[in-house]
Amino acid sequence: MRFEVTAKDTGGVRRTFSRDAETREALMSQLRSEGLLVLDVHEEAMARELPPFWHLSWLKPVTGFDIEMGLRQLASMLRSGVTLLKGLATIQDQAFSPRAKRTWMRVKEHVFQGGSFAEALGEQPKRFGEIVVRLAEVGEKSGELEHAVTRAADQMEARRNLRSAVVNALLYPVLAVLMATAVSVYLMVAVIPKIAEFLQAGGAELPSLTQSLMDFSAWVNANGLAILACIGGAVAAWCAVRMHEGGRELEDVLLLKIPITGRILRLSGTALLARSLQIMLESGVPLLDALATGARLMSNRRFRRRTAAAHDGVLRGLPLSESLAPATEFMPMLARMAAVGEVSGSLPEAFGETARFHEMLLALAVKRFGMLIEPVMIVITGSIVGFVYIAFFMALFAIAGTN
Length: 403
Prior knowledge:
This protein is mainly α and 403 residues long.
């Protein structure tokens, strides 16, 4: 039989693992002989088997939201007195996709074999992320794993909300530009050539506006392959630049300098770093470790470099506020609130206020950007279509005047 065991070792660290034994009494005797203080022993619950790999449900990926909900579920069960192993088995059973079930199964199996929960999460860094692993490690050492897991889920939620805000802000103009481009290409390739045949059949001299439009359409149709090749080359060059670390950082710097979207990215980066530092510091993660983890959390290379430089400055003995001062890509309030937090001894609270303020500013910036970009794109698309219609009707009037 296999049993789930919760015990404390000689160092007072609470551990949860599984062990095979013939009876519960024999297992208890074995654990006591190893110097462990047994807190709970019960037979392991059997988890549901995974579907075969050819099943269509395997196509559903594991999202960050799935991991976040699993962590919240685990925290709720731990607060209610459910053991870690039983909680992990429950999450595995209730997971909606086989990939998610397998993710939690790997975590559970590692803990079953006597490993720590943090180590189990660290074996799947793409699923959980370094900050979740660090918080779990601190929670296990402090004996407050349920609080650490809750803070990890809060950090994932904050990061998800910030990413959604930025994506929603940038996605609409990108789609609008693609729509305008598609309309323009369709007019040039399919509509205008047919209009040109009809107008040329009239035999009248066309207005210069109409003639220039038809000439441009003819040029696009004649050089379509060359245009596509140039676009493909530009995309390939852009991808090659992104593969290089220096090129990726240059791109990230240029994005931050764009007037409106740059401000949105700056607000997002500032709020993300402040919120992450707040959660880690409140959980007991040392400042240097929190900065190192926060740097790896930033997707923008310039933000990552600036955070790593702040870490090095603190390591040399500088105050955090002075280390953050050269990072002008972040909003100025980040360094100033860090100075206030250092003086008052309430650095987590200072970062929490900074995060809340910039999250509010980010929501307002995204809303205003959406209100601004919508009429602009309507005017651009309408101008393209209207130009074609004006040119067409001018030609019709010219033909009618000659008859």
